[in-house]
Design brief:
The protein is mainly beta. The chain has a domain of about 90 residues: Thrombin, subunit H, CATH 2.40.10.220. The strands form two sheets. It has a six-stranded antiparallel β-barrel. A two-stranded antiparallel ribbon has the order 1-2.
């Protein structure tokens, strides 16, 4: 099975210069990232702790954070869960920033999900009948 996250190349933070231009990870007024973010276009679902679900997309991701595409009409709480469609893990996130239809998050925790009933059935040897797919019913 492929890794949950794509392989990422980490680039070191520029060293501080004598004039303090790269001091504390700040370059030209912007905070530098610890890890490089990898562009993605994953479909995901935000799950709030009250049970509300919000559809979103994961635009880019790194080992410690991500940028989510979320409609600006939704207010996000300080922390929430995220489930990426087609992946067997769930993330606990903390909201770092919000601008328009995008939200930056920090990844606090990753949890692996248990096997679903569908996976359990295939392990028991029960196979779906694919012979009927595409065939016309006879009357």
């Amino acid at each position: 099975m492929p890794d949950a996250f794509p392989r990422m190349v980490l680039e070191p933070t520029p060293p501080s210069s004598a004039d303090g231009s790269a001091q504390d990870g700040i370059v030209d007024g912007h905070v530098t990232r610890r890890e490089e973010r990898v562009p993605t276009n994953w479909i995901a679902m935000i799950r709030l702790f009250d049970g509300t679900e919000i559809p979103c997309t994961v635009k880019d991701i790194s080992k410690s954070g991500a940028r989510l595409g979320v409609p600006g009409t939704w207010d996000l709480p300080p922390s929430f869960m995220l489930k990426v469609v087609g992946r067997d893990f769930v993330l606990r996130l903390t909201l770092a920033w919000r601008r328009g239809n995008y939200a930056g998050v920090r990844i606090d925790r990753i949890a692996k999900l248990t096997a679903t009933e569908e996976k359990a059935e295939s392990a028991n040897g029960q196979r779906p009948d694919y012979q009927s797919i595409g065939s016309r019913s006879r009357r």
